[in-house]
Amino acid sequence: GFAYIRSRRKTNLLMVLINTAVFLVVTALSGGVPDTEQMLSCGAMYPPYVIENGEYYRLFTSMFLHFGWQHLFYNMLLLWFAGDMLEARSGAARYLAIYLAGGVLGNVLSFLVGMDREAVSAGASGAVFAVIGALVWIVVKNRGKAEGIDNRGICMMAVLSLAQGFLDAGVDHFAHLGGFIGGFLLAAALRTPSDARTKDI
Predict the structure, then answer these.
(1) What are phi and psi of 9, to 5 degrees?
(2) 41 is annotated as an active-site residue
C-alpha cells in the first residue's frame, strides 16, 4: 500500500491530496456535505459575483472545490491514472502548467457561455480534462504509438467522458470541453515530448 503510493508521480499525487484536503476542510467547516452558500463562501464559481464584484479568483479557486464525495472521487480517480501518465511523459513543471492553466481555461469557457445564468459550479473536472486533452495530443502527435500511454484507452476515455458530460444534467460540460481543448493546445505549445519518456523537472 504505502510503497504503491510512494511510486506515484509526486506532483500529480500532490494535486490529488490538495483536492482531497480542501474537500475535508470545507466539509468540516460546513458540518456535513457543503451547501451552496458554503461553497460560494469558499470560492465556487458564480458568474454574477465575477461580473458584478470582479471576483475573478473564482476561476481558479473553484477548481479545488467539490460538491460531495462522489464528485470528488470520480475526478480524483481519473486524475490518479491520467495525471501519472502525463507527468511521466512531460515532467512535473509541464504537467502542473497544463493542469492549472487548463483548468482555468475550462472555467473561462464555462463562464463565457453561462455568464447570463446563476448557476454555482465547482470541481477539478476542467483541470482533469486538460490532462486528458494533453494525453490525446501526445497520442495524435506520436501517431498512436506513445510509449507508456494506453492510446486507445485514453481516446475512448476522452470521448465517453465528454459525451457523459453533455448527456448528464447538472454537469458543467463546457468546463470539460474548455479544459480538454486547453490541455490539448497547451501540450502542443509547451512542446510536451511525444516520442520518449522524460524525467521530472
Answers:
(1) -65, 130
(2) no
